[in-house]
Amino acid sequence: MAERRETYNAGVSVQAMLESMAPGLDRAILRILSQRVGREMAISRPNLLTALKALGFDVHERQARAMINELRKKGHLICSTGGSEGGYWLAASWDELSEYLEREVHPRAMDLLEQEQALRRAGERIWGPESHQAKLF
C-alpha cells in the first residue's frame, strides 16, 4: 500500500522525485532560508527558485515544494503562506511557528480529514461497509 500511496499523486512518485533531485538541494534551500528568519523576511516562491538557480539548482517549483515538505518532516521550522505577499521563511519564535501551524497547517489537515470521511461514507453507502473491511484480512 505504501508504494501505491507514493504514486497516487497523478502518477508521480514523490519519493522518486526526491531521489532524482540533485544532491545538496536540501542544503541549498536551508542556506537560502537561513537568511530569511521571521515572517517579514519571507522569500516568494519565484524568488526562491531564482536563488536556487543561482546556486546551480535548476528545479521545478513542484520539486522545491516536495523538498521543503521533506525538510519540514525532519523538523526544520519552515513556514509559508500563499498569496501576493506569500513566501517561505524560518520561524523566528514559538509564537510565529504556532501562528503558522494554526493558520496554515491545521486547517489544511482538517479539510483533508473531512474529505476522507465524506468519501468513506459515500463509498460505504454505495458499496456497503463490508466491501472494504474484508480486504483487511
Characterise this structure.
The protein is mainly alpha-helical and 137 residues long. The protein has helices at residues 2-7, 14-20, 25-33, 45-54, 61-73, 94-127, 130-133; strands at 78-81, 87-90. It folds into two domains: 1-91, Orthogonal Bundle (Arc Repressor Mutant, subunit A), CATH 1.10.10; 93-137. 61% of the residues lie in helices and 6% in strands. A two-stranded antiparallel sheet has the order 1-2. A hairpin with a 5-residue loop joins strand 1 (78-81) and strand 2. The relative contact order is 0.11.
Number of strands: 2
Strand content of the residues, in percent?
A: 5-15%
- Count every helix, treating DSSP H or I runs of 4 or more residues as helices: 7
Give the class from helix and strand content and strand pairing. Answer: mainly alpha
Dominant shape: globular
Q: What is the correct CATH architecture of the largest domain?
A: Orthogonal Bundle
CATH H-level homologous superfamily name of the largest domain? Winged helix-like DNA-binding domain superfamily/Winged helix DNA-binding domain
What ranges have pLDDT less than 50 throughout 5 or more consecutive residues? none
Q: What kind of sheet is the major sheet?
A: 2 strands, antiparallel
